């Protein structure tokens, strides 16, 4: 028998479909996870607060395959997993539609001044005119990172009449490569971040990049907080050198009520809500895990296996 240590929140979805060679132990909280981790050959240790999950990974010295529902794995000790020979699968693609819908929703809301209408509604006041009345149609968007999430955002924006330009590692099919995008920042009305977080992406959008953008452009971050220099962003917004920013990620999370980001003009902070699991995402996550069980048993390719050297 192979011992699997799995999240109790998925028990009803996965237990009936587990193969008979899996002995499943389900955890409900961090203490249970840490206690069970040393037995795990298959592990699924996802927690939104990563403290207990990381402690469990340190203890899981029998681990052979680690599964995660999260697309981002930069919080994990990838070097340790590689040293131990652990295979890692993530949730790449599963949350793509949910995040893309959320991203486009916030871009539409920003373009049409929807927040003004909500505030007027809360005051029981008939608004005369929102602060913004732009259309997405006819605008230009640079999407930095064109994996599952970025390409889905691109597809949805294209349907709204946005001219989409991808940025990715290989400059093909009209995409900008790593050495080309900075010189083109001034061409775009929206710069959308959707790349995985790696050491190479940290600080990628700083003072110089923000200065190169159009003064009316909007920065949209659905990637990682550390990609953006938050102080430089705040300065650009206060100085009127940038039209706006939509941040699903901040550093830290949550930010305190007196944090400087709250005071920035034309900023929308969405509290890391874009990728929260929907019922559809949970169902697909469970199906993928069960399908991967047999592939792992057979030593075959796993769906959404992470390259531990690259970090995605």
Describe this structure in words.
The structure is a single chain. The strands form two sheets. The chain has a six-stranded parallel β-sheet with strand order 7-6-8-9-10-11, with helices on one face. A five-stranded parallel β-sheet has the order 2-1-3-4-5. It folds into two domains: 2-94 and 278-298, NAD(P)-binding Rossmann-like Domain (Rossmann fold); 96-269, Rossmann fold (3-Layer(aba) Sandwich), CATH 3.40.50.720. The protein is built from ten helices and eleven strands. It is an alpha/beta fold and 312 residues long. The two termini are 30 Å apart. Helix 2 packs parallel to helix 3 and helix 5 (96-111) packs across helix 7.
Which helices and strands appear, and what pairs or packs with what?
Elements: E1 2-7, H1 11-14, E2 22-27, H2 30-36, E3 42-44, H3 50-59, E4 65-67, H4 78-84, E5 87-89, H5 96-111, H6 114-122, E6 140-144, H7 148-159, E7 163-167, E8 190-193, H8 207-212, E9 218-221, H9 230-238, E10 244-247, E11 267-269, H10 279-298
Parallel strand pairs: 1-2, 1-3, 3-4, 4-5, 6-7, 6-8, 8-9, 9-10, 10-11
How many strands, which pairing sense, and closed or not: the largest β-sheet? 6 strands, parallel
The average pLDDT score comes to 95
CATH topology of the largest domain: Rossmann fold
Reading the helices and strands in chain order gives: EHEHEHEHEHHEHEEHEHEEH
Backbone structural class: alpha/beta
Q: What's the architecture of the largest domain, going by CATH? A: 3-Layer(aba) Sandwich
- Tell me the β content: 5-15%
- Beginning-to-end CA distance, first to last residue: 30 Å
Helix amount: 25-40%
> What's the CATH superfamily of the largest domain, by name?
NAD(P)-binding Rossmann-like Domain
Number of helices: 10
Number of domains: 2
Strands, total number = 11
CATH class of the largest domain: Alpha Beta
What overall form do the CA principal axes indicate? elongated
